[in-house]
Every structure is written in C-alpha cells, then in structure tokens.
Task: inverse folding
C-alpha cells in the first residue's frame, strides 16, 4: 500500500512569494494534518482537516491556509513568504477505526525561502 | 504557556543496554501521549500511544510509562541496537489525538 505522499520534495522561493504544497493521504484515511518542522525542533501543528472541514488550527498567521478535497487530498498554501517560513512541512493522515490515533507522516516538503 | 521538554538533545548508549528517554510537560492536561521515531530527512514514524488513564504500555522491546501526577513519560528501549539510533519525539494531545504538540526530540545513538 502506498503511504502518505507529498509534493514537491524540495522547493526554493524568495521572500514575498506564494507557495502551494500538496499531500495525498493513505487510501481510506479521511483526516489530514499539517505540521511545520524547523531544523532541530519538533513538528509544530498547523491545521487538521477531516471530511473536508477544518477541525483545528495551530498558532500560525493568516498567511497560512489549507483545504481538503473530495478525494481527501489536501493543499497547504502560504502567502507572502518570510525567511522564517523555511522549514520541513509534514503532512500526516489517520484513519477512523482501529489505530485511528496513529498519525502516518509523509516524507515532507523542504521549503527554502531566500 | 504549554511546554514539553525531552531530557536531553543527545543520548549515547552502548549496544545491548536499555535506553531511557524522558518527556516532561507543564501547563498541559493531555488525554493522549505518543512517541514517534524520526530518521534524518524523513517524516516521524508512530511507535506507541498511551492514554491518561493508563500507566504503562509495551510493544516488543519498547515500553512507555505515563505519570500524570509527575507530568512525565518515560520511554524505554531494551536490548538496544545500532539500528535504534534516531531522534525520538514525544507528542501530546488533549481533545483531538490528531492535533499533536511535539517536544524537540532526543537524538539517540547506540554504539556498537
């Protein structure tokens, strides 16, 4: 079975630009969460979506937005990029039965803002 | 504010010994505590989950304890192997187990 996939793998942008990151959850998983991981730190929660609705939002500015599509894939958008947005962006999916609390993480998108 | 501390940034132990990692938290009442493993350049991998009403959970060579009075979790790897070398992350959640607050991790190196 395919795991969580994310695209692109790496991305380089300049300050002020916009970026869109994409995530495909494990087949059958309806929940997708996004995390930002700065080098040397643990992941920080950004958003959680379930059945296309936002179920939680972390302490991030309004420049960050996300959405979930009918096929449960998700996009994370960041506007007006700042140098401090450089990080590994992780997507995680989880199911609705059995080990539903287990988060399955993708490999991440490494964003560099110059 | 909520704070999660993991005992040290790096921990070196000899192969075959038991590794013990600590996770302490303040200003938090978690319903769930989870441990993840992260290898360089990869996403975290789920290891164990323990609920607030559970004291201990085991899985193969792994054991987790959860003391809500001390606000602490201990993570043990018995008979450690060099392949266990990785960064181990503690994560807490209150309402939704899918919205995790992570510690900064402990980098474990098991020396042959």
Result:
């Amino acid at each position: 079975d395919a795991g969580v996939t994310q695209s692109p793998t790496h991305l380089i942008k300049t300050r002020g630009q916009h970026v869109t990151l994409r995530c495909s959850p494990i087949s059958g998983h309806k929940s997708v969460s996004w995390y930002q991981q700065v080098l040397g730190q643990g992941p920080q929660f950004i958003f959680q979506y379930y059945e296309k609705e936002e179920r939680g939002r972390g302490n991030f500015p309004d420049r960050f937005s996300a959405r979930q599509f009918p096929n449960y894939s998700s996009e994370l958008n960041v506007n007006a990029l700042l140098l401090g947005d450089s990080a590994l962006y992780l997507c995680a999916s989880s199911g609705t039965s059995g080990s539903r609390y287990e988060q399955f993480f993708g490999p991440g998108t490494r964003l560099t803002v110059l | 504010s909520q704070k999660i501390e993991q005992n040290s940034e790096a921990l070196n132990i000899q192969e075959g010994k038991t590794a013990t990692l600590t996770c302490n938290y303040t200003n938090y009442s978690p319903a769930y505590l989870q441990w993840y493993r992260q290898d360089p350049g990869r996403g975290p991998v789920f290891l164990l989950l323990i609920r607030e009403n559970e004291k201990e959970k085991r899985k193969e060579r792994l054991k987790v304890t959860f003391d809500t009075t001390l606000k602490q979790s201990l993570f043990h790897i018995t008979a450690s192997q060099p392949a266990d070398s990785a960064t181990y992350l503690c994560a807490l959640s209150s309402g939704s187990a899918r919205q995790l607050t992570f510690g900064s991790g402990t980098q474990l190196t098991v020396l042959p």
Notes: The radius of gyration of chain A is 13 Å. Chain A has a mean pLDDT of 93.
